[in-house]
Amino acid sequence: MAAWISREALNPGVRKREVFGWAMYDFANSGYTTVVITAVFAAYFVGGVAGGADWATLAWTSGLSVSYLVVMLTMPGLGAWADRVAGKKRLLMWATCGCVLSTAALAWVGPGQVALGLFILVLSNTFFSYGESLTASFLPELAKPDAMGRVSGWGWSLGYIGGMLSLGICLAYVLSAQARGESGSQFVPVTMLITAGIYGAAALVTFALLKEHSPAQPNLPVRSVLQSWRGLRQTWRDASPYPDFLRLLACAVAYQGGVAVAITLAAIYAEQVIGFQPQETMVLIFVLNLAAFAGAFLLGYLQDRVGHKLTLSLTLLGWIATCIIAALASSKDTFWWAAAIAGFCMGSSQSSGRALAGLLVPPQRLGEFFGLWTMAIRLASILGPMTYGLITWLSDGNQRLAIGSTSLLFVLGLVLLMPLNVARGRLAAQSLS
Predict the structure, then answer these.
(1) N or C: the chain end with fewer CB closer than 10 Å?
(2) How confident is the prediction for the chain on average, in pLDDT?
(3) Which residues pair with 363 in a beta bridge?
(4) In this structure, is residue 219 part of a structural domain?
């Protein structure tokens, strides 16, 4: 990856090895979303743990929503604390330890243990989300404003490589286990241990190389986690001079809700509606990650040339097409097209959104304002999957209707993105910080 990194893209004093260490965290944690949330444990929970019950998809989305609600309410306060004491890296270490241990604990969940599965899912996804927010807050420290797109793309690209590595190793184990006649309740727990191990090992590279460049801000108000409700309200007031950042948050709530549906329910849709077998689903998600790698890397450079807003708009159009194709797909071949488009758009939409947020955030309050960004993403992660789960439940299991309705979230995101003025928002972030 060192060949990708150019010094002129980095802020003064930032070394290439630091950027590599930062990007390695995307490599580390992508296995969690790929294996646990998307490809393996999600489908296992619905079909194996919950026995394919009508309420299983809603239970899965509800568990994720609880974790996102916890993060949404607490991350701004934690981010403000990290800014005050220059403790983003320390907090990232604790979040990583929590996610690795709770991911490994998912190996204990067997058929019928719905409550245990949901409890550990909430824990692991909460810690994962903390880590995701904290690592995003390092981006403006590392990259120059006009290079945030490609640097963010480097991280997302390496992340998808990590996701493919974790999924590839798990797929190899699953195929060997199936050849021995083992069932999902036997091989899924091992995949959780594999994922946790890769996450923890790869994150050590981040902790060894990444530095914290922002100084402590002792004058910022002290906000404990228990005061997050009050702190959240204050942070919203503090963000009022940055209207374009707030517009981006509203846009993110809409389109990231749709992305969350793809991440959390792709395997469930593939198996329950299209008829994929577990090993076919894992291959599908592997190829989706390959497309996401290409999208994050290639469009990371494109957005620095044509603008983050235009790049994000193009990916939202791709997402709309994905939902329509998936809803109408009557064969596996057609669904493969939807998955390929989704993969390409997934990497680029998440990368460009993070880079755009980095431009609009005041430099001295990265942890706190990226806490707001996380709050928006997690609110989206509640609204998108929960809406999907409710539509499925209320329509007697009609997931085609649910995925078709998801396209409206991307349409709304596109509408909300149009008034955003990047130059004006960047000027406000620099002049008012």
Answers:
(1) C
(2) 83
(3) none
(4) no
